[in-house]
Every structure is written in C-alpha cells, then in structure tokens.
C-alpha cells in the first residue's frame, strides 16, 4: 500500500516514490512519496493559516476528535498492528500492544485536556502588591513540528500529535523514514474524522534535509523530537528561539541487591533487555549485581533468556524478531567483538541470521567498553559484579545519559537511596527500567533530553502561560 503526503487535510500525489522492505523477509511492504523542501514549506504555511481556527475550536470538539480517532483505531487494530510488523519487524503480539497503548495515549490526552486549568494568584500577598483579580491560563503555542523514531512508530507519534492537537495547535509531522505507512494510517484517521479541524495536521516524509527545513523555519513555535543525540544536538543549534523538547535515548541500568527475589529479577531483566530486540530507549543495557549473588543471578538470567522465542515476527508466540537494519546487526557484532578482545566473556552464544541477532549476555565487562558505556540499541545486556549498592549507584550515574534506572531490592534504605541519588528522569523499584506507563511524565536528564512526554506533561509543553491582571 502507498502512503500519501498530507498538506493540511489535502492528500498530495507525487511522481517519485521510495519503498520500505520488511526487516524480516526483505519484501516490499509499503511505498511512500519522496518529499521536497517545497512540500515542507507548503505544509508549514498551511499550518500557520490553520492555527487560528485550531485555537478557536472548543475543547469539547477537540476532545471528541481524539476520542473518535481512538474508536477508529480500535476498529482497525489488526490492520495497523500488521503494518507495524511489516515495516519495522516488531513481533505481532507486541504490535497489537502498541496499538492498544496508542489508543490509551490518545484517550488520555482528551481526558486530560478536559480538566487542564489555570490558577488564580493572590496579588496582595506581598507588601508591594494590592488586591486585583489575577490568574493565568494556558494557551496553544500555534504551530509545532513532531519528528518521531522507528521503534514505536505509532504510539510515539500519538504522544506528540494528540497533546498538540487537543490543546489547540496545528502541527506538521515527519515520521521515521522506516515506517511511513504506519504514520499515514494514523494521520488519515485524524483527517477523516467528522470532528477534524481542517488543515490542523500535515504529514511529510524524509531524512535530514526535510527535518532541517522543518526545524529551521520561523513558523513553528515548538519542535518535539525523539531520536539520537547527534540529531538532537543539531536541532538545538538550528532551531533558534523556540520551545524544543528532546527525548534522546539512554543507557538504562539496574542493580540486583542481595535482598532481591533473584528468579523474578532475572525473568524481568530478560524481558527488559530483549524486548523489541533491544531497540528501546529504556532497554536494559547494564545490570549491576552484588558480588555475593552474581553467579546465581547470571545462571538464572541465562536460563530465562533461553526461554525466549526468536524468529518470525508474524508468529503469535515470537518474543523477538529482527533488528531494523543490516547496519544495526553489524554495529552490534563489532561492539561485541571489541568487548571480547578486551576481556569480556559471552554467557550466551553470539548467533545471527539475516537481521536477527539472538540475545547476548556479556560478563567480565569493564566500564570503558562500548557495550556498557554507549547506547547499544541491540539485544545485548552486560553483567557487572559490584561490592556494594554505593558502587552500583556510582557506576550507573557515571554515564552521559539519564533516562530511566531501576533497582531490585527489599531493603528500604537502598530503595530510598536510589530514589534520592540516581541522576535520572525516572526510577523504577523492583522492576526493569524499561517499564513505562503512558500516563506518567517521561523524559530524561543530561544527554537523555529536555522536557517531558505523557499527555498531561506534553500538553504543558504544547501550551504557553498567559498571565492576566484585572485591576
């Protein structure tokens, strides 16, 4: 099936087409139009004209719009789940979960907007003040740009466009080049809804040139990007005076305490490390284990990993399918070979077939190896023995990233210390750092980004505060 460009609510035909091949089979699964900078300019100008209409639309209509899309998503669940699997190789059971989460994200955005309010201010609370009627309200920014990645090609789009639209903005979306049809099917539902605000959303495709044209334009007031640190850095340099929200990935770590339930911890860590072939910003990459339980935990983790079914993403019980590209497989294997040459020891075989790299657990890892100090984005997890929880905290914090960390512990003092001292956007207790609920604030510190997602918190990013004083 062919995706289309949307310049506002109008679908546009193009003469040049690109194609997407399945990461699993190599077959062509979708086609998309090749966009130009002129298409970007048209989309932004259309959004600029639509922003006033969007702002004036009632909250009731905007909420009904989102709820209608959520309903249509539910009706088209299987088709959209298969499209995700076709384009990015995600196992079909996980693609269905992504559709369900997308429905929740859109619904939460509508529910949240109904109760978003300003606040009254006591202007006579200071000696220099006096009695007035003073309050602030939240108003839409106007026009925004959303740029999204391949690993959650549906739900991460929803996390940007649903809060943006329900808070009264117009938006231009550039989805990942790897999954154009997934984004198209979602945007089409928005545009064809009877509650749609005309021209409030546009859809364009492309890589660096298209992204640069969107970011550097003077029209958008917000840039919301999820992706790599180098691209995030480039956005910050070219965006100018705009609100910029960045989710730039991480190097998630956990600590296994002596007091933890080791079998449960191992089972959860296998899930956290290898879900979506490790292609998750909060994929578990570093496991720090107290030295007294290291051998036993390693044994349990290997056992749990061997239970995971690897293979065709179209089979119902497949846990892990292919990586997104051959380059991703090569990079991961090069990092593994480098670590082994420096003394690391694989606890599971290093095996690959096509774009499938089977899960790898590495031991004897040191802090300077790429597989532990940089974001690997592959099904690789490293075990590191530590003498104490303090050492684990120091090692986890010794990273340029700070998205989500976790600990497994029944020691209340260690739990409190983790909450207080881990330098990170999110802390999870007694589960994997890969755990995310769409209703939460989500985002990181340091190189992991700026700003927060989650419907309530994203709506705050997509609005500005207007202060009012009536004397």
Overview of this protein structure:
Helices cover 40% and strands 22% of the residues. By secondary structure, the protein is an alpha/beta fold. The strands form seven sheets. A seven-stranded mixed sheet has the order 14-17-18-13-12-20-21, with helices on both faces. A six-stranded mixed sheet has the order 9-8-7-10-11-23, with helices on both faces. Strands 5-6-24 form a three-stranded antiparallel sheet. Strand 8, helix 6 (180-192) and strand 9 form a beta-alpha-beta unit.
Write the layout of secondary structure elements.
Layout: E1 5-7, E2 10-12, E3 17-21, E4 28-33, H1 37-56, H2 59-75, H3 77-88, H4 92-115, E5 119-121, E6 133-140, E7 143-147, H5 155-166, E8 170-174, H6 180-192, E9 201-203, H7 208-216, E10 222-226, H8 229-238, E11 243-247, E12 252-256, H9 262-274, E13 284-290, H10 294-306, H11 326-341, E14 345-346, E15 352-353, E16 356-357, E17 360-363, H12 370-373, E18 380-386, H13 389-397, E19 401-402, E20 404-408, H14 412-421, E21 426-429, E22 445-446, E23 449-450, H15 455-461, E24 463-470
Parallel strand pairs: 7-8, 7-10, 8-9, 10-11, 12-13, 12-20, 13-18, 17-18, 20-21
Antiparallel strand pairs: 1-2, 3-4, 5-6, 6-24, 11-23, 14-17, 15-16, 19-22
Helix pairs in contact: 1-7, 2-4, 3-4, 3-6, 4-5, 5-15, 9-10
């Amino acid at each position: 099936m062919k995706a289309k460009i949307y310049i506002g609510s109008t679908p546009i035909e193009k003469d040049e087409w690109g194609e997407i091949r399945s990461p699993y089979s190599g077959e062509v699964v979708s086609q998309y139009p090749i966009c130009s900078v002129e298409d970007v300019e048209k989309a932004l100008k259309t959004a600029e004209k639509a922003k006033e209409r969007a702002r004036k639309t009632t909250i009731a209509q905007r909420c009904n719009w989102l709820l209608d899309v959520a309903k249509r998503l539910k009706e088209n669940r299987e088709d959209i789940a298969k499209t995700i699997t076709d384009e990015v190789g995600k196992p079909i059971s996980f693609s269905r979960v992504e559709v369900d989460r997308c429905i929740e994200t859109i619904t939460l955005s509508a529910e949240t907007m109904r109760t978003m309010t300003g606040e009254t201010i006591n202007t006579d609370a200071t000696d220099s003040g006096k009695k007035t009627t003073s309050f602030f309200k939240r108003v839409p920014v106007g026009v925004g740009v959303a740029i999204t990645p391949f690993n959650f090609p549906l739900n991460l789009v929803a996390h940007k466009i649903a809060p943006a639209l329900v808070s009264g903005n117009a938006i231009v979306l550039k989805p990942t080049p790897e999954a154009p049809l997934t984004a198209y099917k979602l945007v089409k539902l928005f545009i064809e809804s009877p509650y749609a605000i005309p021209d409030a959303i546009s859809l364009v495709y492309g890589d660096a040139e298209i992204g640069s044209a969107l970011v550097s334009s003077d029209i958008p007031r917000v840039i919301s990007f999820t992706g790599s640190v180098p691209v995030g850095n480039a956005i910050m340099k070219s965006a100018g005076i705009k609100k910029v929200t960045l989710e730039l990935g991480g190097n998630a770590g956990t600590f296994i305490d002596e007091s933890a339930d080791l079998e449960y911890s191992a089972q959860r860590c296998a899930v956290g490390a290898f879900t979506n072939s490790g292609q998750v910003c909060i994929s578990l990459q570093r496991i720090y284990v107290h030295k007294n339980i290291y051998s036993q935990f390693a044994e349990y983790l290997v056992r749990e990993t061997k239970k995971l079914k690897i293979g065709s993403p179209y089979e119902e019980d497949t846990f892990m399918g292919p990586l997104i590209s051959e380059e991703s497989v090569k990079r991961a294997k090069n990092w593994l070979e480098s670590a082994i040459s420096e003394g690391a020891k694989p606890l599971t075989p290093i095996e690959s077939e096509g774009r499938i790299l089977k899960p790898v657990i590495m031991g004897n890892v040191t802090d300077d190896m790429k597989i532990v100090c940089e974001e690997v984005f592959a099904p690789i997890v490293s075990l590191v023995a530590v003498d104490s929880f303090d050492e684990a905290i120091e090692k986890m914090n010794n990273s340029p990233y700070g998205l989500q960390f976790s600990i497994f512990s029944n020691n209340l003092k260690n739990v409190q210390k983790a909450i207080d001292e881990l330098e990170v956007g999110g802390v999870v207790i007694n589960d994997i750092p890969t755990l995310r609920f769409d209703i939460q604030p989500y985002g990181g510190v340091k190189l992991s980004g700026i700003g927060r997602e989650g419907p309530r918190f994203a709506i705050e990013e997509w609005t500005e505060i207007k202060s009012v004083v009536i004397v």
